[in-house]
Amino acid sequence: MKPVIGLEVHIELATKSKMFCGCPADHFGKKPNTQTCPVCLGLPGALPVPNKKAIEWCVMLGLAFGCKINKESNFDRKHYFYPDLPKGYQISQYDDPFCYEGIFHFGSVQAHSRSVCIRRIHMEEDTAKLQHTELDGQKVSLIDFNRSGVPLVELVTEPDFDNVDDVILFLQELQRIIRYLEISEADMEKGSMRLEANVSLSTEVSIGIHLRGVPDYKVELKNINSFRFLRKAMLYEIDRQRDLILKGSQPIQETRGWSEAKSATVSQRIKEEAQDYRYFPDPDIPPIKLEQLTINNLQLTIPELPQQKRERFEKQYKLPKNFIDVLVEMKARSEYFEEAAKFNNNFKVIADLMINKNLDRDFPEPAGLVKKLVELTNVEYSSQDEVEKVVNLVVMNNQKALKDYQNGKGEVIGFLIGQVQKELRGKGNPAQVRDFLLKALQ
Question: How do residues 278-301 score in pLDDT, each as one tens digit?
C-alpha cells in the first residue's frame, strides 16, 4: 500500500483592503468586529466589488507555478451553513478559476528535483473567525467578523505525492515563493497560510506490469498551522488507514483534524462532495476578463524565484550547497549577500560570516560586513590618495545623488559609500571614505 496525497493550501493576501469591500484586510490582533461593513457582514442589499490587486496577485502566483491563466473567469457562490459565514454562502470560484493546470518542479540543490501538477489556483473570500471562550461562567462561541472577506487564495495540487517528506519540501518552497512575491507573510501562526492534506492509500497489483490501484475515498486533514503538525498528522493518518485496510475495513471519506494533546487525528465531519455546495455563478459579480498584455506585465513583475536563485548561486559563486540553501531562504538575505559580493570576491568567506556568525545582523549595510571581512583577512586598506581619487570620481558620475544630497536627502550617503567601496573592492577605510565623501559633497 502506498500513500496518495494531494494538498489544498489557503493563503491570505496582504492587500490593504478586503476582497469585495474597502475594509482593512490586516485583521490580526485588531479589536473584534471593528473592521466591518454591510458587505463583509453579509447584510441584505450590499453589493461586492472585486479587489483588482488581489486578482493580480493570484495570477502572479499561478504564473510562478507554471499555470495556464483563464482570460475570462467567474466568481461562484459556494453554499453551506456555518456561523462564520453570514451570507449562507462563500464567494469562491468553481468552473473557471483564474489559474489552472500548472506543473511545478521543486527540490533544493541538496535534494533530487521532482514535479507536482497544480490542479488550480483560485480566489475566494475568507470567513469570520470563531472564538471559543467563557462568558459569565458559561462556555460560548463568539464571532469576530474582522477576517470575513479578507482575500484568500487557494492552491490545489493533484494527488501526486506518495511520501510525507516531499509534501513538506513542496510546502516550504511554496511559502518561500509567496514571500519572494511579497503577496503575503504566509505566517502560519497568524493563520495567513493554512494547510490541508487529502490522504488515502492505494493498493498495487502486478499483472504483467506494475499497476497502481486508485483509492475511491480520501480523508481531508484540515486547517493545520505548522509543517511539524502536518507531518505528524499525515504519518498518523497513513498508519491509521493501513490498520483499517489490513483488518478488512474501508476508511470513510471524512474531514479530520490534528490533536496535539492526543497525538492523533480526530474526526470532525463527513466529507462533502462538490454538489453538496450547490455552486452557481454569483449574479452580483460580472465575469472577470484579463487581457494578454496584463498577464504579460504580471509575468514581468515576478522576481527571480528561489530555485532559479539556487542554480545561479551554484554557478556564479561556487558556494557549498548547504550555504546556498540558507542564503536563499529569505529574499532580503540573498540580496544582502549579492550586494556584499560586489565589494569583495571572497564569496565563501562572506557567506560563512553571514551563516555561521550572523554578521549580517550586526551590519545593516553590506559594506560594514565587507569591512569586517577585510579586518579578518588582514587585507590593507587602499591608500588615502586612491580613496580620495575614487570618491571624486563617484561623485562626478552620480550628479543626481549629489543634487539629492544638496536638497536634504542625507540617505544618499549610504548609496555613495557603496559605490566607492565597489570601486575599491571593499578596501576603502569606511571612516576615511565617509570623510572624503562629505568633503566632496559640500
Answer: 999 999 999 999 999 999 999 999
